[in-house]
Amino acid sequence: VNGLMTLGFAGARQQTELCNESLMLEKLPDCGRSFEEMMKKVDSKKWCNLTEFIMYYDNFTQCTEREANNASCFWPNPLAEGFITGIHKQFFSNCTSEKVHWEDPPDEILITLILIPVMLTCAMITLVVWCSKRSDIL
């Protein structure tokens, strides 16, 4: 029990350490350079396809988290997020999603889609009323 309490107090003491932002900002570019080197292996035309570089991105994310934790900083934090956003702008700025233009279906289909539930509802109400009046037979 005493050992567990010591571990608990040690964890509480680690959380109270101040974040060394300058150390974190000094180390995060190493993660960026490593990610950049790995991304050179991927054809730039495939940068918008996450399946092509998911392992590299996972390594990059783990690196930024490790460096933030080594500097006694929470992750994610505004500074780390700013750095990650910069990497996203560098590699994925051309990866915009195409907006889908929604259109109403033709009138014939729309009327059918509206009338089917209305007719089913009317039929169910009629069936329930008819069955409730015929309860003596059931």
From TrEMBL:
UniProt keyword terms in alphabetical order: Cell membrane, Disulfide bond, Glycoprotein, Membrane, Receptor, Signal, Transmembrane, Transmembrane helix, Transport
Pfam families: RAMP
Protein localization: Cell membrane
Top-level lineage group: Eukaryota
Gene Ontology biological process terms in this record: calcium ion transport; cellular response to hormone stimulus; G protein-coupled receptor signaling pathway; intracellular protein transport; protein localization to plasma membrane; receptor internalization; regulation of G protein-coupled receptor signaling pathway
InterPro entries registered for this protein in UniProt: RAMP, RAMP_sf
Entry membrane topology: Single-pass type I membrane protein
One GO MF term: coreceptor activity
Chain segments annotated as transmembrane: 109-131
Any one cellular-component term (Gene Ontology): cell surface
Entry similarity comment: Belongs to the RAMP family.
Protein name (record): Receptor activity-modifying protein 3
Upper lineage: Eukaryota, Metazoa, Chordata, Craniata, Vertebrata
